[in-house]
Amino acid sequence: MHHLVLAAVVIITIIYVVLPLIFRYSAAFQRQLVFLPYTIGLRWPIKVNYSQPKIHGLQGTRNFYLPTAPKVHVGVWHVLPRDLVDTFSENTETSLANGNPIVLYLHGNSGSRATGHRVELYKLLQFHNYHVIAFDYRGKFTFTCTCYGCIDVSLGFADSSQVLMSENGATIDAIRVYEYIRLFSGKSTVIVWGHSLGSAVAIKMVASLCAVKQSPDRLILESPFNNIRDVFRNHPLTLIYRPLSVVDRFFTERLETNNVAFDSDVHIAGVECPTLILHARDDRIVPIFLTRKLYEAGLKSRPTNAAALQFIEFPPDLHCGHECIYSAPQLPSIIQQLVDLDGF
User: How many beta carbons lie within 10 A of that of residue 269, not counting itself?
Assistant: First the structure.
């Protein structure tokens, strides 16, 4: 009995004292929990050969590396439209100007550009004759253990540079990939598509581009949120801390200082291009009311001359959840309406 009580005390101490203190005072730990790069080994596929996208069922796909900052590069896939797959070569840049819409996809936290639901979206877009450019952010998770000698484990986002991850770093990576696309896109429509955490990167990126008159043609925000603070306050993992009213003090106070605040409800004021928000009502990771807050912030704060902002909700019977809006049968027509500005 004594051992059970002691074990319970230790567990409670770890959960309610140690973990909150580590999160509050360790900037590295906080960034890692926001980006979750180390979960790449916990999601299918576990081992990925990024140089062979065909292994994942992606035909006509080129893997390459793009420098985004000094000593920083990101791994990129260019998925060709279905009609161009038979003309695939390692020199795919010139095809970006052929008139097919181009989707720059910014994924959410954890996993990589090869994660299952992301690949399914690429396949859908490829079938409907979109180019898809998908990449992995810079990022690094380092664990050092000296208990049994010296053990160092270092993991990042896929095959991109293992350097310090941050909100600004992810945004810079996204802007550089966008600039690469614009070098070759000609008059083709360029759509920035951000999912979950990637939607926050997309909003900050597009606001920055709009400020210098280099806006993309369209913006899609899939399963977005208003800011990371509210995500933590409402995430299932923080449920046990809410009765103690410590979520803000230990989990959200230093997000901005540590460059992971992702204040999308602030940055959306600078987004001027036609914008479409997609969210499933059965999303248990990002509650839909956080997306509604983002939408309302956009309606209130965007300039009066900004292009339309639309919000589409997917009903629970479609079982889209947080990651599977790609499976909604009406999605292709919704995207086409955005491309054509039909109803915007």
Answer: 16
CB 108 within 8 A of CB 114: no
Q: Which residues pair with 233 in a beta bridge?
A: none
C-alpha distances (whole Å) from 279 to each of 90, 290, 292, 322 are 36, 10, 9, 8
Total residues belonging to the chain? 344
Helices 331-340 & 116-127 angle (0-180, nearest 10): 60
What are the structure tokens assigned to 252, written together? Answer: 């959200």
pLDDT for 146 equals 43
23: left (phi over 0), alpha (psi -120 to 50) or beta: alpha
Give the pLDDT confidence score for residue 330 in this predicted structure: 98
The first and second tokens of residue 42, run together, are 């916990």
Structure token digits, residue 13: 């101490």
Q: How far is CA 303 from the centre of its chain?
A: 25
Q: Name the helix (H) or strand (E) containing 120.
A: helix 116-127
Directed axis angle between helix 167-184 and helix 197-211, to 10°?
60
Q: Which residue has the tokens 């951000």?
A: 194
Helix, strand, coil percent content, the chain, rounded in steps of 5: 45, 15, 35
Alpha-carbon distance of 260 to 192, in angstroms, equals 21
pLDDT < 50 stretches in the chain: 40-44, 143-154
**Cβ-based neighbour number of residue 54 at 10 Å:** 12
Contacts of 167 (CB under 8 A, 6+ apart): 200, 201, 204, 259, 260, 261, 262
What is the DSSP code (8-state) at residue 251?
I
Whole-angstrom distance, CA of residue 307 vs CA of residue 305: 7
Give residue 175's identity as a one-letter amino acid code. I
CB of 221 closer than 8 Å to CB of 278:
yes
Over residues 189-202, the pLDDT tens digits come to 999 999 999 999 99
Candidates 154, 169, 214; CA nearest to 73 is 169
Strand partners, 40: none
Catalytic positions:
196, 283, 322
Nearest to 13 by CA among 22, 2, 25: 22
Pair of tokens at residue 16: 């309610």
